[in-house]
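User: Thanks for the earlier help. One more: tRNA (guanine-N(1)-)-methyltransferase. Can you show the sequence and predicted structure together?

Assistant: Of course, both are below.
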Amino acid sequence: MRLDVVTIFPEYLEPLNVSLVGKARARGQLNVHVHDLREWTYDRHNTVDDTPYGGGPGMVMKTDPWGDALDSVLADGYDTGSHGPALVVPTPSGRPFTQELAVELSERPWLVFAPARYEGIDRRVVDEYATRMPVYEVSIGDYVLAGGEAAVLVVTEAVARLLPGVLGNAESHRDDSFAPGAMANLLEGPVYTKPPEWRGRDIPDVLLSGHHGRIARWRRDEALKRTAANRPDLIERCDSAAFDKKDREM
Ligand code: SAM
C-alpha cells in the first residue's frame, strides 16, 4: 500500500518511522511519502492561508497550494505505478472513523492524506478531487484538534495493522474490540498474562481450566459487561442471535 501525506508540519509525521508502521515500511509492505505543502507556495512568506470569505475568526487554507500539491503527488504516484488513489481528509465534521472504515481503507492500494490546520481547507479543493477519486472526510472523535496530523497517525496505524503480514500473528485482530463477526460491536474484555498471582490478585480460574468453550463464553460475558458499562450505545447493535448460536455450539 502507498501512503502520501501533505502537511505544513512534515516533522509531525516522524512517528511513521517507528513501531508497527515503521517496521511495515522497512519490510516494504507500506510505501510512505511525506510532503511539505509549503513546497507548493510561490511567495516570499510561503503563504498557505488567507482570511475567510464572509468574515469570522481564523484563517482558511488556500486552494492553490493544495491543488498544486495534490496534482503533483498524484502525478508522481501514477509515474511510479500506483493506481486507485483515494483522498483522506481529516476533519471534525467528517464521518466517524470506525474499525469498519479502517477495513475499507486497508483494501485500497493508495491513500493520500490532506490534514489541515487553521479553520480547514477551502471547500473547493475537496469538491474538485471528489470528481476524480473517492474522498473520505473522516473525524477521529467528537473533539477539535489543532490540526489533522494526529488524525493521520491514528488512521494510518489502524489501517496498517490490518494489512496482510503486518501483524506478527494474523489472528491478533480477530478478537479486537469492534472486530467483525459474532462479537461485532462488543468491546474486548480484560486480558491477563503471567504470573498467575500478583500483589494478592489472582487471574480468573476459568482461564486456567483449559476448557475452550468455557473460556470463550467467559470472554464473551466480560466483553458484554464492559460494553454495557462503557458503551451502552453499542449493546443495542449487538447480534444476540449470533450469541445464542455460539452458546449452542459451546
Ligand atoms: N473549524 C473547524 C471545525 O470546527 O470543524 C476545526 C478546524 S481544526 C482547528 C483544524 C484541523 O484539525 C481540521 O481541519 C482537521 O484537519 C483537524 N482536526 C481537528 N479535529 C479533528 C477531528 N476530530 N478529527 C479529524 N481531524 C480533526
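User: Great, one quick takeaway?

Assistant: The longest helix spans residues 212-230.
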